[in-house]
């Protein structure tokens, strides 16, 4: 910073779409049928105009505190 102090910076990207998980059984079934399921879902969403969005947060930690 302007005072010459060092900081650790941690970036947090939070999805605005939320987090959707799959059970182990669902994931196994989907992976066996379509290994590119998540990529396909992303591309199809973008094609429909439903672009992914994230909020970005930063956490600045004084250098000495971050060493512990």
From TrEMBL:
PROSITE patterns: CATALASE_3 (PS51402). Keywords: Heme, Hydrogen peroxide, Iron, Metal-binding, Oxidoreductase, Peroxidase. GO terms for cellular component: cytosol. It comes from Neisseria subflava. It is an enzyme of class 1 (oxidoreductase). GO terms for molecular function: catalase activity; heme binding; metal ion binding. The keyword Heme applies. Its cofactor is heme. This is catalase. Gene3D superfamilies: Catalase core domain. The keyword Signal does not apply. Pfam families: Catalase (PF00199). Residues 1-66 form the Catalase core domain. Decomposes hydrogen peroxide into water and oxygen; serves to protect cells from the toxic effects of hydrogen peroxide. PANTHER family: CATALASE (PTHR42821), CATALASE-B (PTHR42821:SF1). One of its GO terms (biological process) is hydrogen peroxide catabolic process. Its EC number is 1.11.1.6. InterPro entries: Catalase, Catalase_clade2, Catalase_core, Catalase_sf.
């Amino acid at each position: 910073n302007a005072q010459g102090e060092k900081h650790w910076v941690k970036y947090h990207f939070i999805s605005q779409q939320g987090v959707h998980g799959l059970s182990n059984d669902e994931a196994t079934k989907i992976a066996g049928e379509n290994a590119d399921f998540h990529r396909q879902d992303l591309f199809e969403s973008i094609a429909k105009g439903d672009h992914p969005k994230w909020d970005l947060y930063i956490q600045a930690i004084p250098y000495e505190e971050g060493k512990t």
